[in-house]
Amino acid sequence: DNFIDLEKLRFEPQFKQYMTDAFAPVGLMIDEWRSQLPAGKELEVPVVVSNDLYRDWKGKVRLRILRGGKVLEEQTRACEVVTLGQTKLSFSCAVPAEPGDYQLEAALLRAGAKPVRSLRDFKVGAAGDKMEDGIARGKPVIASSSYVEAGNDYRPENAVDGLTDTRWSSEFS
Is the Cβ–Cβ distance between 93 and 87 less than 8 Å? Predict the structure, then answer.
């Protein structure tokens, strides 16, 4: 249950913040889903900003790498999103070299407004550690569609190939 006081219908604070961010009229999403990243490698982190308002939105987007709440890296960019539109930004950063648990945090920043955040947890393994494996790795895959564009191939087999830099995507319609 996500209430800390059922009589007054008071939410647990972290759940309330999560839900507030998830349903913000201008929201964002870190479009990086891997749970384990290779130590010390360059990483392109895509961040999608969506505007559900009937007016253009202007502000800043901040990306941080955190460990135990401590900021290890931070970048901020200006961002504009047209009425009912989306903008995709890409942030370049280095994956930390030290093994452990980390977090990516993207935030929308606008004067006078509380930040809206998107969070992704990830691990950095020690040298020689195997990436996470699942029972589906290498098994046959059937999908109703797959998305292919110049330079990117999102075949269904990518979903179970065990590689962290490939993925499957359905055709958009």
Answer: no
